[in-house]
Design a protein that fits this description.
The protein is an alpha/beta fold. Helix content is about 35%, strand content about 10%. The protein has helices at about 1-30, 35-70, 75-80, 85-110, 145-155, 175-185, 190-195, 210-215, 225-240, 255-265, 275-285, 300-305, 315-320, 470-475, and strands at about 165-170, 250-255, 270, 325, 350, 370-375, 395, 415, 425, 430, 440-445, 455-460, 485-490, 510-515.
Length: about 525
């Protein structure tokens, strides 16, 4: 894995450098709003940077997983994953991903030299017979069947008066005009109908020589217009055209309705946005590939996720691939769909004020999750049993009494929560009753022992102990090391003497003790406001 570390280090440096280029390019793009090539270049650059960040996330997650696994308790599955043979396979796969990303970024850097982000050089990107290749997956399309059929009817219909008939596909950027044209261009019926098919992409400036040169596929330096015309004529003559051919057809894609009306010989085809259902289907395919999706997602949640995309496929796909924040608060949800585990790069999940009584264990697959909000889920009785897998979690909010949004039915904290050593916020820790039937799943106060990054406010709610049996547990919580803790609230403490560590919490500014009926002795609390 050493070689991979070096490659990833270089990739990380490349990503850091290229982020600065994004800012400069965006500034230039604002000055040159008509230069769509810069916009396209920026889109490719952002995609590559996002993919690089995802790859670095994946690798750092695997490293952290390995570090968190104690030697004698490593499961068979984890032992296999980190075996020498599997490390080789993982390293090989990661190496290929890094190499592919480096090549993409290098290509993007080469392209940037054509712009210099000063003059905004116009250039035409030309290809002929652009087919789907084995090196890239066909672009996903959803909800465009009727649009494709309409364009095909135009192409296959011979009842037009013009020798050259033109239809324009018009719509705002990101609706999928080019993707639609690609699918029509590569359609088997269209291929069979036309002896010659040419694909020409022209962005910005129009250079007839470059267009013809690209169409004939010549690589020589002959730029004479007449010579290029002759080569194009010879190429067309070599094709065996159908005897009943009545003329050529041209499909133009454009954002401009003016251009569409000017170039078309028939009414332009206006491309509209996708419906909510179509947008969700596209999102589902992009976010949960290879048939991995499962479960049902409420219609309101679907609208929340894709409703703001305006039916624009490019936006839907971008969100599906890059979803980092998901807010599903106040939806009245009784359960969380298992398919949430597939959104592997999710970092912020807000499920507050919902009605579920348990949180699906599938949430623990979100190894990049940093914030989990559950405050106000008044029916919630338990957290996921494998919560320790949320190795990146920094903020776990289950509400608190002061804000009146506590998960009041929460019965215990799961065993293993103490492994989440990056936790900075844990709004409430519930100490379960000793005689609970789920004792093997319950974590005691000693789980707090290693959570030394906790800061701000902490509430400890003791559900029930006999006599003074919780005194030793409070000692095990090791709160003396919580140097960033500022507010402490303890409810239901059953001992007669409060632990002495409370006097040594240097940053503590507030302490609240409630329902501590047996408490007789409190250590000196000099300088701490007492409520």
């Amino acid at each position: 894995m050493v070689g991979i570390n070096d490659q990833l280090w270089k990739l990380n440096g490349t990503v850091t450098r290229i982020k600065a280029v994004i800012q400069d390019a965006e500034e230039q793009a604002q000055k040159q709003k008509q230069n769509h090539q810069i916009e396209d270049w920026l889109k490719k650059l952002r995609e590559a940077v996002y993919d690089a960040e995802d790859l670095l996330d994946d690798f750092s997650t695997q490293v952290l997983r390995k570090q968190l696994m104690p030697g004698k308790r490593v499961s068979r599955e984890v032992r296999l994953f980190f075996s020498r043979s599997n490390q080789f396979v993982y390293g090989s796969r990661m190496g290929h991903r890094v190499k592919a990303l480096r090549e993409r970024l290098d290509g993007i850097e080469i392209d940037s030299k054509k712009f210099n982000f000063v003059r905004g050089e116009e250039r035409a990107s030309l290809t002929t017979e652009r087919e789907q290749t084995t090196s890239s997956e066909p672009e996903i399309t959803v909800g465009r069947e009727s649009d494709k059929a309409a364009v095909k009817i135009f192409l296959m219909n011979s009842n037009y008066e013009h020798n050259v008939s033109v239809i324009s596909v018009v719509g705002m950027g990101g609706l999928g005009k080019t993707t639609l044209a690609q699918h029509v261009f590569n359609d088997e019926q269209v291929k069979a109908h036309f002896g010659v098919r040419l694909w020409v992409s022209v962005s910005g400036g129009l250079d007839v020589r470059k267009i013809i040169k690209g169409a004939v596929g010549t690589g020589d330096s002959d730029d004479q217009l007449e010579s290029l015309k002759e080569k194009l004529e010879r190429k067309i003559e070599k094709k065996k055209l159908p005897r009943d051919a009545v003329g050529s057809k041209i499909v133009v894609t454009t954002r401009s309705h003016v251009i569409a009306k000017f170039t078309s010989t028939i009414e332009p085809h206006v491309l509209k946005g996708l419906s909510v259902d179509e947008s969700w289907e596209l999102f589902r395919r992009k976010a949960f590939p290879q048939g991995q999706e499962s479960g049902h997602v409420d219609e309101r949640i679907r609208k929340e996720i894709v409703g703001r995309c305006g039916g624009v496929p490019l936006v839907v796909k971008a969100i599906a691939r890059r979803l980092r924040v998901l807010v599903l608060s106040d939806f009245g949800m009784k359960e969380v769909s298992p398919l949430i585990e597939k959104i592997k790069h999710l970092k912020y999940l807000d499920l507050s004020n919902n009605e579920m009584d348990a949180l699906s264990n599938s949430v623990t697959s979100l190894v990049n999750l940093q914030v989990l909000k559950l405050n106000g889920c008044i029916n919630l009785k338990e957290l996921p049993r494998d919560i320790s897998k949320l190795i990146s979690l920094r903020h776990l909010d289950v509400g608190c009494t002061l804000d009146d949004d506590l998960c009041v039915d929460l019965e215990y904290m799961p065993r293993g929560i103490g492994k989440l050593t990056s936790l900075q916020t844990l709004s409430c820790f519930v100490v379960a009753e000793k005689e609970s039937p789920k004792s093997e799943m319950i974590g005691g106060l000693d789980e707090l022992g290693r959570l030394n990054e906790l800061r701000g406010r902490l509430e400890i709610k003791v559900m029930g102990y006999e006599d003074g049996s919780c005194i030793s547990e409070f000692e095990g919580a090791n709160l003396i090391d919580k140097e960033y803790l500022q507010q402490l609230r303890v409810e239901g403490y059953g001992g007669m003497r409060f632990p002495s560590w409370v006097s040594h919490l240097s940053n503590l500014v507030s302490i609240v003790l409630e329902d501590c009926g047996r408490l007789k002795h409190i250590p000196p609390l000099d300088g701490i406001p007492f409520a």
